[in-house]
Amino acid sequence: MGFLNQFFQDVFHQNSVTPKKNSSFEKISEEELKVHLNIAKYDDFELTDAIRPSYDVRIKPQQAYRHDCFLDEENQSNVPVIMASATRDELFDLFIELVRPLGETVDVVLETSHQGNGCHQDLYRESIDMPVLKSILYDFEDLLVNDGCTGIAVLNPNMPQEVQFDEHKLLMVYGSPLETYEHILETNHVVFNPNVQFLTEAEHVHSTTQEFASQFEQLKTALGMDGDSYGSNEFKEDQYGSEDDGISFC
Q1: 131-170, pLDDT tens digit by residue?
Q2: How far apart, in whole angstroms, are the C-alpha atoms of residue 137 and residue 233?
Q3: What is the pLDDT of residues 97-121, one digit of tens each?
């Protein structure tokens, strides 16, 4: 089933979907929106079901990485970052390969925005063996790749380095040195492009389902994490848009 087909079959006629003002989605028809959201491939790059670009495709997705930095406000220091995007068929395996250098015992952070209201919650698990973690991640590959309200980070605080696979399905590596991760990316045909832009840098839409929300709860249990359930909210409400039942406009 294509991107959000079930959403349009089951929900669209029951609930309105309202993008923010001055959005590229603001004046398009239901059919135009449906066609756009079912476009997954741009040249050789295929998106997952988690995210789509603006209707006018202000940023076309591409496979590449660039360097950036993150301001650690607590320590008042800049942390080197690699930001990368990869096509759907390569994305999950690349994430698994990127976490390998973190060591045999790692910490895990799950990010969720299933509860809506523009809120994100982070759930933390300390000290899990890497082989156990990888086994769990493979069990929940579909959720991690295709849910626009689920993100995960794997880190080794002793290094310190972190690999993040966020809800936009971007891959980010924090810390230093980064040469090992650059080699992994380039070996997997993710090329360095200092000018690459990612979908997060323009208007975009996220997608989730009730099934993914349920799978997220199962993933929490598998990782031994505590935290509240989010009831039966089927789709995300985002701080950038109005309440909806299948996609959120950012």
Answers
A1: 999 999 999 999 999 999 999 999 999 998 999 999 999 9
A2: 24
A3: 999 999 999 999 999 988 765 677 8
Whether the pLDDT of residue 93 is over 80: the answer is yes
Global pTM reads: 0.83
Q: Give the whole-angstrom CA distance, residue 225 versus residue 223.
A: 6
Per the listing, tokens 């523009």 go with: 118
**CA-to-CA distance for 45 and 22, rounded, in angstroms?**
28
* Amino acid at site 184: I
Residues near 107 by beta carbon (within 8 Å), at least 6 away in sequence: 124, 125, 126, 127, 128, 154, 155, 156, 157
State the greatest distance between any 2 C-alpha atoms of the chain, in Å, as a whole number: 52
Rounded Cα distance between 10 and 122, Å, is 30
Cβ contacts of residue 199 below 8 Å, gap of 6+? Answer: 51, 53, 59, 61, 85, 168
Question: Cβ(163)–Cβ(130) under 8 Å?
Answer: no
